[in-house]
């Protein structure tokens, strides 16, 4: 697929941590409703690519256009606002606030955008129903299983109806059965809202849920679909 | 044996657990080390103060025999103490009368006339521009430095100056009581034994200061507890039973505390090097004074590791460590109140039997006092977790920051309570002490009677001064910049003629304006004489028409003849009034015209000086002017409050201790908070990733601290007021609450917490960086 009409488009991204280069001219694009898997071995730079695309990390050089706006020219507060309202996130672990109940965790992004508590929790519950975790509402993350926790995290990533969901190894800590269920629910829910999903994984089984794969190796990216079409 | 093995294993984990293990052990060690350093300092404090007293005694020149004849081993010594910028300056003029004259401690030889040896602090002051005014009063050439043995502390201002003119002043007629002839430096008269109420106060101060340190150490050995619990779960997985895991955990704490003992000793030794630089409440000591007593140091060495093991075992009693994790992440069962209440109740039970002892025998059973106070204050640490849990369970609503904080507190109120325990105990103790201090202050702090509104300085003139010389000196004082007025009163002694029933009569001589300072005069003109009634002394034989004799004046070393005096029959009787020094003299008040013909009488003049309000250096300029006219002047500033030395010493000790404890607790709070933040690094990063504002998280941290702190300080105020009331009843004083000081204590406690929160914000923001999301 060509970059034309991309919702998120990155060109020639470079990023180093100290003397270690993490990204070395990486490219990326994604369209609304598309699921793109970013694959590669450990330390290849895939998480750094995701962090740059989400505006969490500023690249050393290169360009990231979201909906036609250059991310690197935005101030930190603008990028935070963007993440609150337009992006959703699922990480491998350590993402649910342990002291909040599952419902409160899912409602949290809405509350951060100023939605009133009751309304936020009502919306959260409807997403929890879709993710089949509505019965965990009053439980805390420490009281639920890993698979359940990850589904709660997916519900949280979708609760603001984001245009892009960033998922960094969302099934990394789950067994294959739970992992597949989480992926199924995530991709279904994203497609139903026309949200794009940037899916970082090193598992082919998980990448199979995507429409397209981008492989990152030594900080450089290769779009597998483009190569196949060539 | 098995326990020893488990302890050793735990200690090994603490030291070989990689970076993570080391960090935790180091944090514990630093925390324990700070506590140990403070404990060592406290055990060394009594020794430091007695070393200071010993040096004070060794250089004492009061109480030498008045009649010592001049000899090769005698020396004349004159006290020329002064005050500069509010600081005391100890001054001595010395004149040896032979080659074996005694040399004061800290000096290798007596200074030659016109030269002086000075304390290092005085040398620096005199060399600095700020010491210019003092230089006028201490003009001698500096030829040496007083050694430590001759000084109370490194910051003392002191000098010994050589003189060759003391002998001329050492005559009976000179009335120089400040010049003494000494052979040796005599021992100080033993002071009065410390009274039981002060002893009680000291005991309470030690409990109040040391208990927060103990609470702090208990908190420090639990630093990094969450991660440790995860490690313990892993041990359960490979076959350790729950008892073993507890002892392994205790072993980890033991290693941390032993390392802490070592670090504490190092901290103490480092701090000791700098102790000379610190002056608290006008007290400072030499580093060499600060030597902990061996027995107490050994006690610290044994008690701290034992406490580390005990606290860990106690803390883990409610934690179920399972092979797959620690069952504490679920909501814990509610805390029970009954045994928590038992502690303060038993404490009260121990103290109540001692009510009113201060009025009767004054005997307090110290063990009972310590036990009761400790239990009452420990009650704060027992009640606080229950209080926080009970209150936060009912909290809800609010913004995201508030919700995050409240939920965190609901999940783990114990950690919050641990954070605040130390400060709550310190504040409770401080409030109780403050109440006790205020209650008994009246016994130890008395008004000196000096009226600083009427005069700011008093300049006594030497005797045998001619009227002309007195006037010249008064003019000199008037000419000092900043002086707004002077009043001079003369003082003459008379007595009734009957040798069998001789009564002393005081006569004040001065112009009408000056006499109004000592009597309520209806009208006055030169030549008038008044009889002052209602005076404290000197008025017995004074009446209109009474025949009296002026006391003999000294002529050289012999007394002159007594001059008869008849009080005029028309002398009016007026009411005596206290002079600016607070002395209400009776007797006669005479204008100069009334005594002009009596040229042989000896008048002692005293000039009262008023200065411009707000002129900080006027007093020093007046003292300089007085010194120029009389190097032995006893001119001084008036002070309207007089505090008993021992009481002010105790209060001073309290301030020193309280400052150290607050610093320690602040550090403890900071370490605990940073540790909590570090544990949540990944979570904080992910919260920021999905757009959480920094301010939201900052508010969450603030609420997370503010809620338990508010509850802790409320509880501390209650317990503190209760303990204060009990202590006041013990010393037989009415219960009175000094609300401003309670508010002050609570405010200081709150300020420490706010400061710590502010200091933890930069690390919080740093932890919110996306680096926390990186796993590789």
Automatic annotation (TrEMBL), chain A:
SUPFAM superfamilies: P-loop containing nucleoside triphosphate hydrolases. SMART domains: AAA. One of its GO terms (molecular function) is ATP binding. The keyword Cell inner membrane does not apply. Residues 8-228 form the ABC transporter domain. Keywords: ATP-binding, Nucleotide-binding, Transport. The keyword Nucleotide-binding applies. It comes from the Bacteria. PANTHER family: ABC TRANSPORTER RELATED, IMPORT ATP-BINDING PROTEIN. This is ABC transporter ATP-binding protein. The lineage of its organism: Bacteria, Bacillati, Actinomycetota, Actinomycetes, Kitasatosporales.
């Amino acid at each position: 697929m060509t970059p034309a009409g991309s919702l998120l488009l990155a060109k020639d991204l470079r990023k180093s941590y100290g003397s270690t280069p993490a990204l070395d001219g990486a490219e990326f694009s994604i369209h609304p409703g598309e699921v793109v898997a970013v694959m590669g071995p450990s330390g290849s730079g895939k998480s750094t690519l995701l962090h740059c695309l989400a505006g969490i990390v500023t690249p050393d050089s290169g360009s990231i256009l979201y909906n036609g706006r250059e991310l690197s020219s935005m101030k930190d507060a603008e990028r935070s606002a963007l993440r609150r309202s337009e992006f959703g996130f699922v990480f491998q672990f350590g993402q649910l606030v342990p002291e909040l109940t599952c419902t409160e965790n899912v409602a949290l992004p809405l509350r951060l955008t100023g939605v009133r508590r009751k309304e936020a929790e009502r919306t959260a519950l409807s997403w929890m129903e879709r993710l089949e975790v509505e019965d965990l509402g009053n439980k805390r993350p420490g009281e639920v299983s890993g698979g359940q926790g990850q589904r709660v995290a997916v519900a949280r990533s979708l609760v603001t109806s984001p245009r892009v969901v960033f998922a960094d190894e969302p099934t990394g800590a789950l067994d294959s059965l739970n992992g597949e269920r989480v992926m199924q629910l995530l991709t279904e829910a994203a497609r139903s809202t026309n949200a794009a999903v940037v899916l970082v994984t090193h598992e082919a089984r998980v990448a199979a849920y995507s429409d397209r794969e981008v492989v990152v190796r030594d900080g450089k990216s290769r779009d597998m679909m483009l190569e196949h079409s060539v | 044996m098995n326990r020893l093995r488990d302890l050793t294993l735990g200690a090994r984990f603490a030291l070989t657990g990689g970076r993570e293990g080391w960090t935790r052990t180091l944090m514990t060690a630093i925390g324990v080390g700070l506590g140990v350093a403070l404990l060592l300092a406290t055990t060394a404090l009594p020794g430091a103060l007695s070393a200071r007293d010993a040096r004070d005694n060794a250089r004492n020149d009061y109480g030498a025999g008045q009649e010592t004849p001049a000899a090769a081993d005698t020396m004349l010594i004159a006290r020329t103490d002064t005050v500069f910028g509010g600081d005391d300056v100890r001054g001595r003029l010395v004149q040896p009368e032979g080659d074996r004259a005694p040399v004061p401690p800290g000096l290798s030889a007596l200074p030659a006339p016109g030269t002086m040896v000075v304390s290092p602090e005085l040398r620096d002051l005199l060399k600095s521009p700020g010491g210019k005014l003092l230089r006028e009063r201490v003009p001698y050439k500096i030829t040496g430095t007083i050694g430590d043995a001759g000084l109370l502390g490194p910051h003392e201002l002191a000098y010994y100056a050589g003189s060759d003119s003391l002998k001329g002043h050492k005559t009976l007629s000179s009335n120089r009581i400040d010049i003494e002839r000494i052979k040796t430096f005599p021992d100080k008269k033993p002071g009065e034994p410390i009274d039981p109420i002060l002893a009680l106060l000291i005991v309470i101060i030690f409990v109040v200061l040391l208990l927060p340190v103990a609470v702090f150490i208990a908190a420090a050995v639990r630093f990094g507890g969450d991660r440790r619990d995860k490690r313990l779960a892993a041990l359960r997985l490979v076959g350790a039973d729950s008892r073993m895991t507890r002892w392994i955990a205790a072993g980890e704490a033991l290693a941390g505390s032993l390392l802490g003992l070592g670090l504490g000793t190092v901290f103490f030794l480092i701090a000791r090097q700098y102790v000379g630089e610190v002056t608290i409440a006008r007290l400072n000591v030499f580093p060499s004074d600060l030597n902990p007593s061996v027995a107490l140091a050994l006690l610290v060495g044994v008690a701290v590791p034992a406490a580390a093991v005990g606290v860990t075992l106690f803390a883990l009693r409610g934690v179920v460590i399972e092979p797959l994790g620690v069952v504490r992440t679920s909501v814990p069962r509610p805390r029970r109140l009954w045994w928590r209440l038992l502690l303060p109740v038993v404490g009260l039970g121990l103290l109540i039997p001692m009510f009113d002892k201060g009025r009767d025998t004054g005997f307090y059973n110290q063990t009972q006092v310590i036990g009761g106070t400790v239990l009452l204050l420990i009650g704060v640490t027992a009640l606080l977790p229950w209080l926080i849990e009970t209150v936060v369970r009912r909290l809800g609503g609010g913004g995201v920051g508030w919700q995050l904080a409240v939920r965190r507190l609901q999940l783990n109120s114990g950690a919050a309570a641990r954070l605040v325990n130390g400060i709550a105990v310190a504040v409770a103790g401080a409030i109780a002490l403050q109440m006790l201090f205020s209650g008994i202050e009246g016994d130890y702090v008395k008004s000196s009677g000096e009226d600083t509104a009427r005069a700011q300085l008093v300049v006594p003139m030497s005797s045998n001064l001619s009227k002309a010389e007195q006037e010249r000196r008064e003019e000199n004082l008037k000419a000092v910049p900043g002086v707004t007025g002077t009043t001079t009163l003369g003082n003459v002694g008379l007595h009734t003629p009957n040798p069998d029933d001789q009564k002393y009569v005081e006569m004040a001589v001065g112009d009408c304006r000056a006499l109004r300072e000592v009597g309520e005069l209806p009208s006055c003109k030169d030549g008038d004489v008044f009889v002052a009634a209602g005076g404290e002394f000197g008025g017995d034989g004074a009446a209109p028409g009474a025949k009296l004799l002026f006391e003999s004046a000294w002529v050289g070393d012999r007394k002159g003849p007594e001059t008869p005096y008849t009080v005029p029959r028309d002398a009016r009787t007026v009411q005596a009034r206290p002079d600016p020094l607070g002395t209400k003299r009776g007797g006669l008040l005479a204008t100069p015209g009334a005594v002009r013909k009596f040229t042989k009488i000896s008048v002692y003049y005293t000039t009262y000086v008023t200065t411009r309000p707000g002129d900080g250096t006027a007093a020093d300029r007046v003292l300089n002017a007085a010194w120029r006219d009389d190097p032995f002047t006893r001119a001084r500033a008036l002070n309207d409050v007089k505090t008993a030395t021992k009481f002010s010493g105790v209060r001073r000790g309290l301030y020193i201790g309280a400052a150290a404890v607050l610093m320690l607790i602040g550090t403890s709070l900071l370490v605990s908070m940073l540790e909590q933040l570090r544990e949540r690094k990944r979570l904080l990063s992910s919260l920021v990733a999905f757009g959480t504002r920094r301010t939201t998280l900052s508010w969450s941290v603030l609420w997370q601290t503010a809620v338990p702190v508010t509850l802790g300080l409320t509880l501390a105020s209650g317990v503190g007021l209760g303990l204060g009331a009990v202590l006041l009843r013990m010393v037989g004083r009415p219960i009175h609450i000094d609300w401003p000081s309670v508010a002050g204590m609570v405010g200081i406690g709150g300020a420490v917490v706010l400061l710590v929160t502010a200091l933890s914000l930069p690390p919080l923001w740093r932890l919110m960086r996306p680096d926390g999301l990186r796993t590789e």
